[in-house]
Amino acid sequence: MIAKTDYYFDCNRHGISDSATLKPEEVASLQARLHFLEKQNTDLELREQNLSNQINAQRVSIAELEGRSKELQSLIVEQKSNDFRYRELFHLAPAGYLSMDENGIINKINLAGTLYLQLSSVNLVNTPFSLYLCDEDQSRLREHLISVANSHLSMKLQVTLQLRDGSTRPVMLATSAIRAKNSATRNFQVMIIDITEQLETEKLLRNANDYLEELAHHDSLTRLPNRTLFTDRLQSIIVKHAAAQKTVGVIYFDLDGFKPVNDTLGHHAGDKVLCHVADRVRRHIGPTDLVARLGGDEFAVILDNPLSADDAVARARGIADIIRQPIVLEEGTVNVS
Q: Rounded mean pLDDT of 289-318?
C-alpha cells in the first residue's frame, strides 16, 4: 500500500496545485517521465561537458596554430629578407658570379660578371660561357667542368676572357657543382676573379728576382758573367765534358795599356774601354763559349770543347787581335792589347 505522502509532488516542478492528489497509475507515469527527464538531463549535462572540453581543446589547438602561424610568418619574413640580402649580395658583389647548367649555358650572372664580359645579362643568359673565352681555353673549360662534376670539389681554372673590344682579361674561375634535389642534373656555380693585377705583380716580382740574380752573377759595368758565375759554369762544363771525354779550353787575359787610359782620360773613359773589349770578345767567341770579367781589367773565356790545344791557342790569338784594334772614344782614340 502506497503512503499518502507519495501522492504529493512539487507543484512548481510539475505544474499542479498543492491540494491535488493523484491516482497511483498517474504517479507511476509521472515517476517514469521524471526518471526519463532526469536521464535526459544527465545525458545533456555530459554532452555539454564533453562539448565544453572539445571547445577548450579546440581553443588550445587554435592558440597553438596561431602561434605556429606567427612563427611561420616570421620565418617567411626572415626568408624573404635573407633572399633579398642574398640577391643584393649576389648582384652587388665585387667578384663576378654566374651559374651554368651542365652544358655550360649561363642561366644567371651578377653585375660584376656582366662588367667583366662587357655585355648585359639579357645578352649573356642562355648563351654558352665558352663563347667569351679565348679559343684555346674553350676545350679546357669543358674538361674543367667534367673534373668538377666528378670530384664534387670546388676547383680553379685560369682562363683568358675575349672581350667585345678585342682586348683580353685573365681571370680565375672557382667552380663548384650543385646537384638539384631528386635529380641527377648538375648546375655549376662559378666565381670569376680578375687576376690582372696579380699577374702584373707576379711579373714585377719575377723581374725583380731576375734583376737580383743578374746582380749576383754578372758584372754591373759590362753585364758579363762575374767571377762567381764563371767558376760555377766552368765546374759544370768540366764535369760534363769529363764524362764525354771532351776537352775544355780556358783563356785568361788582362789589358796592357789600360792604366794610362785611366790616368790620362779618366775612369769614365776606362769604363768605356772595358765595355768595348767585353763587346768585342762576346761577339767573337762561339755560341756555347763564355766570357767573364773577373775584376778590374781581368777577363777569362771558356772555350767549349776546342778541337785541340793548337785550336785553343789560335782562338786566343784571334781574341788578342780584336782587342788590339783601336778603340774610338769621345775622349780620343785608345789602343790596348
A: 90
